[in-house]
């Protein structure tokens, strides 16, 4: 398969984790005879510094004309106090989502067995946690009317949703639940918010077309509690933009480190894949950032194009790295491995996955020869 991939490494640790994700994609090209092309463009702080725009026009054009976008991270403290929010790095990402209509943000959350003890939650609570959050990404309070008045002493953000915005993501979430454990939880605040009542009405009606899926409703405050008390009681979560933002960060700690969690943002024409974590600027260039979230985002990219076997090999490589302890310091603070070692290990695993018997994991982890 030929794929044109737009690469937006972004700020902080973005470039170094994306470099490892690309290494793994190149290993997939080599092993499975695919041809992917990678074109890089600026976004976030780099865009502001170079052309005074966190989403330069050229970058947007490149993304529009690509089959998929691989995105690193965004954010730089230096610009946090820019009074003009359009000149903050985050605005580049928000604008990209809106311009490309990336309405569904999919965030899988999984507890990995070798890391059960890393979780801040007790082992019996995290065990078998495996759910997916479907977060609406281009509507709600993020994009409703924003106002300040009374000389800046009052401000408001409107949370607005339409039936259409809700139903297009609801269908994706129901389809996903149908292929999994057949449970969908709509998280809202329907005891207070009119927009949540609309979500309930629309999602309930759609639910009738998916009789095999068990639909339940959960208020967001209760859901926040349930995520840490019984995370394995969720299968597919469907929620709006703001609640999804907050709950996905909360959920990200379950697995023990946010450095493991990938995401996909799906639109009608374009798709974007990015790790959930931020730019972690203090770690930039130190070879300590966890590349696994970026690498798993690459696996989600492959799955999107139905390259399931390829994605599975990446996932196996990740499992192997975690089991062997070839991990970055966020997973084990005594580790001797860094970002590039973890990337090397997984990329080498991909290339050599047919030669199971001859692999020498110790050497791979040390960045030396892969075959004895
Ligand atoms: C996320 C981030 C973004 C969001 C920020 C960087 C604008 O927190 O992708 O979850 O709020 O959506
Ligand atoms: Mg967030």
UniProtKB/TrEMBL annotation:
<comment type="pathway">
    <text>Amino-acid biosynthesis; L-leucine biosynthesis; L-leucine from 3-methyl-2-oxobutanoate: step 3/4.</text>
</comment>
<keyword id="KW-0028">Amino-acid biosynthesis</keyword>
<feature type="domain" description="Isopropylmalate dehydrogenase-like">
    <location>
        <begin position="4"/>
        <end position="346"/>
    </location>
</feature>
<keyword id="KW-0520">NAD</keyword>
<keyword id="KW-0464">Manganese</keyword>
<dbReference type="GO" id="GO:0005829">
    <property type="term" value="C:cytosol"/>
</dbReference>
<keyword id="KW-0479">Metal-binding</keyword>
<dbReference type="GO" id="GO:0000287">
    <property type="term" value="F:magnesium ion binding"/>
</dbReference>
<keyword id="KW-0100">Branched-chain amino acid biosynthesis</keyword>
<dbReference type="GO" id="GO:0009098">
    <property type="term" value="P:L-leucine biosynthetic process"/>
</dbReference>
<dbReference type="Pfam" id="PF00180">
    <property type="entry name" value="Iso_dh"/>
</dbReference>
<comment type="similarity">
    <text>Belongs to the isocitrate and isopropylmalate dehydrogenases family. LeuB type 1 subfamily.</text>
</comment>
<comment type="function">
    <text>Catalyzes the oxidation of 3-carboxy-2-hydroxy-4-methylpentanoate (3-isopropylmalate) to 3-carboxy-4-methyl-2-oxopentanoate. The product decarboxylates to 4-methyl-2 oxopentanoate.</text>
</comment>
<dbReference type="InterPro" id="IPR024084">
    <property type="entry name" value="IsoPropMal-DH-like_dom"/>
</dbReference>
<keyword id="KW-0432">Leucine biosynthesis</keyword>
<dbReference type="GO" id="GO:0003862">
    <property type="term" value="F:3-isopropylmalate dehydrogenase activity"/>
</dbReference>
<protein>
    <recommendedName>
        <fullName>3-isopropylmalate dehydrogenase</fullName>
        <ecNumber>1.1.1.85</ecNumber>
    </recommendedName>
</protein>
<keyword id="KW-0460">Magnesium</keyword>
<dbReference type="GO" id="GO:0051287">
    <property type="term" value="F:NAD binding"/>
</dbReference>
<dbReference type="InterPro" id="IPR004429">
    <property type="entry name" value="Isopropylmalate_DH"/>
</dbReference>
<comment type="subunit">
    <text>Homodimer.</text>
</comment>
<keyword id="KW-0560">Oxidoreductase</keyword>
<dbReference type="InterPro" id="IPR019818">
    <property type="entry name" value="IsoCit/isopropylmalate_DH_CS"/>
</dbReference>
């Amino acid at each position: 398969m030929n794929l044109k991939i737009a690469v937006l490494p972004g700020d902080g640790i973005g470039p170094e984790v994306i470099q490892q994700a690309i290494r793994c994609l190149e290993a997939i090209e080599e092993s499975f005879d695919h041809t992917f092309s990678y074109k890089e463009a600026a976004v976030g702080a780099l865009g502001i510094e170079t052309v005074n725009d966190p989403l330069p026009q050229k970058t947007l054009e490149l993304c529009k004309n690509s089959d998929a976008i691989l995105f690193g991270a965004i954010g730089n403290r230096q610009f946090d106090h820019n009074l003009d929010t359009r000149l903050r790095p985050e605005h580049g990402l928000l604008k990209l989502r809106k311009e490309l209509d990336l309405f569904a943000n999919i965030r899988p959350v999984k507890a990995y067995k070798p890391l059960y003890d890393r979780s801040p939650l007790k082992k019996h609570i995290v065990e078998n946690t495996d759910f997916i959050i479907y977060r609406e990404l281009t509507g709600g309070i993020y994009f409703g009317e924003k106002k300040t008045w009374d000389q800046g002493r009052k401000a408001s953000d409107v949370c607005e949703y339409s039936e259409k915005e809700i139903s297009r993501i609801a269908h994706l979430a129901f389809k996903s639940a149908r292929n999994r454990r057949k449970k969908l939880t709509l998280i809202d605040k329907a005891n207070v918010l009119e927009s949540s009542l609309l979500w309930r009405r629309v999602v309930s009606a759609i639910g009738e077309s998916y009789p095999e899926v068990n639909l339940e409703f959960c208020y967001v405050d209760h859901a926040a509690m349930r995520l840490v008390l019984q995370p394995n009681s969720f299968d597919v979560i469907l929620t709006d933009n703001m609640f999804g933002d907050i709950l996905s960060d909360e959920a990200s700690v379950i697995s023990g480190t946010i450095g493991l969690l990938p995401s996909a943002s799906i639109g009608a024409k374009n798709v974007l894949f990015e790790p959930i974590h931020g730019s972690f600027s203090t770690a930039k260039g130190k070879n300590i950032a966890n590349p696994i979230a970026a690498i798993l985002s690459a696996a989600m990219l492959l799955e999107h194009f139905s390259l399931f076997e390829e994605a599975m090999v990446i996932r196996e490589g990740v499992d192997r790295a975690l089991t062997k302890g070839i991990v970055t310091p966020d997973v084990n603070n005594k580790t001797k491995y860094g970002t590039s070692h973890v990337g090397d290990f997984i990329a080498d695993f991909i290339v050599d996955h047919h030669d199971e018997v001859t692999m020498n994991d110790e050497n791979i982890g040390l960045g030396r020869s892969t075959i004895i």
